[in-house]
Amino acid sequence: MLRLFLALLLTALPAMAQNIQLSDAQAQEIGRRIWKNECAGTVDGLTSWNRGEEFASLGIGHFIWYPGKPGPFEESFPKLAAYLAQSGVKVPSWMLGTCPWKTRAEFMADFQSPRMKELRKMLHDTVALQARFAALRMEQSLPKMLAAAPASAREKVRTNFYRVAAEPLGLYALMDYVNFKGEGISSTERYNGQGWGLLQVLETMPTTGPALPAFSKAADELLTLRVKNSPPARFEAKWLLAWRNRLQTYLK
User: Fold this and answer.
1) Would you call 49 exposed, middle or buried from its count of C-beta atoms within 10 A (0-12, 13-18, 19+)?
2) Which residues contact 160 (CB under 8 A, 6 or more apart)?
3) How far is CA 37 from the centre of its chain?
């Protein structure tokens, strides 16, 4: 039954081989960078639930886990849990279903429980595997973005994807951004019709000049516009400085 569940869950990821092969050192270093970006590199930060959000944010990439009906943002923690299990990690069965905490208050009240500590330990012990999961997600994003992009923009998207990937920190930048703000292909990940995902960044940046500065600048413009268009109740302006600091890590 568990094997069937995992197989069904992993069909959510396109069935294609992962061509990006990260060495153990690369996976650990990129995982460390993403962990620092999302959780300040802390163990407690591996299990978070931000104020004003309707979901838990788990692991080095703050993978989303909804407590029931999915929301507008892509739910990625169940796919990560299935990936870890398929990779030989002993993932407790309760981590393979729906998020057991229904509210942030429940989550915070349970923060030092054995269950939460078990979750944090598993996430702490699998940093490199989580980085490989992020690499797989990033690699599989290109065909989905090309399918979603207007025909007139597809060559630009493809060109910019490979321009960024060829830079020394390019794989990290692509992996981090698609994990951080998604692929940009979902119609629900829009404010006032404007997206902010990897697709929109690749469409916005030019095809000439240094790739990573252009990528970072385009991402900054789109995230600034996201904050401007966001519902006031979400108060997303409080995150903008941290987002901008994160974009700067793509350059050094």
Assistant:
1) buried
2) 202, 205, 207, 211, 215
3) 11
Which spans in the chain are helix H?
A: 2-10, 24-39, 77-86, 104-109, 114-124, 127-148, 154-165, 170-181, 198-204, 211-229, 237-248
> Quick one: 114 exposed, middle or buried, by C-beta within 10 A (0-12, 13-18, 19+)?
exposed
Work out the number of other CB atoms within 10 angstroms of the CB of residue 69: 7
Give pLDDT, residue 19.
64
The terminus-to-terminus CA distance of the chain in angstroms comes to: 46
Mind listing the pLDDT tens digit for each residue in 224-249? Answer: 999 999 999 889 999 999 999 999 99
**Cα 165 from chain centroid (whole Å):** 17
Which tens digit of pLDDT belongs to each residue from 157-188?
999 999 998 898 999 999 899 888 989 998 88
C-alpha neighbours within 13 Å on the C-beta side of residue 140: 16
Spans of the chain, pLDDT less than 50: 1-18
DSSP helix/strand/coil, 191: strand
List the beta bridge partners of residue 65.
56
Is the pTM value of this prediction over 0.85? no
